[in-house]
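So, does this match?
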Amino acid sequence: MGMEKRLRPPPQELTDQQLVKEVRRLARLEERVVAALVAHLVEVDRRELHVAAGYETMFDYCHRGLGLSKDAAWNRMAVARACRKYPLALELLTSGALHLTAVRLLEQVLTEADHREVLEAARHKTKREVELLIAQVAPRPDVRAVVRKLPAPKAAPAPAAELPLEPAAACAAPARPPTKATRSVVEPLAPARFKVQFTVGEAFQARLVRAQELLGRRVAPGDLEAVFHQALELLARSSRSRSTGRRIVRGRTPGRPGPIPATSRPGSSGPSRPRTEASARSSDGTDGGARHARGSSTATSTRMRSAER
């Protein structure tokens, strides 16, 4: 009720056109308020007023002193430090040419020599576009392909009332960004090069090993990029065939004759049962008919085996 009293008229009473116009106005207002907050944090940091207020770090001041969440406190502290060092960043942030996330990401690669050029190049870019710009400005080498077993999840902590609480621990706050749950990552490293990271189950890992075995010498040891590239190519071909109503004939390459029927092979006693995608078995012995229910990994593994033949 209190919020509606401060909003005159309240959103429910606005027409569609008025509501869209007001949302745009509030979005611009939020940008200016955030930029103003960062500008004031720059001055607080310069005067070290957070220390005088009893906070050891700016993160501690933003989190506990201003009541910001850990993510918001870390982002604004990092952006304030970047704007203090490179005033142009604050100018672009205030004008709306750069958003808060862009300044936080660029802060890691800005230098005295090229900060103006990089900041100007980042004008009005999305987060993804800024990440690609950073990959061009400061390219990183390819990461090593790694498949490792994750540690078992930790047991749930005891209730807070049962944990000993020391005064020093109660007041301390981490001067680092908060940890986040593991998630898939696609991160630009350099022009046209990306780091891909994700977590899989035991069945996926077993099929990955099987796919590497099937490819054999055609793929260098540890070259997971080549394995996934071929798997995704087969998946794309299969999807295109389904969308056009065609089927991929096992053992046949476009432009080449198909395999000799069993009845015409020397020594064959009769027609053999045709092996279709639905009846084919995957490398772990499971029925291929459940392929769609179990994801694309089984389908990919089966097609890799047929390609080797």
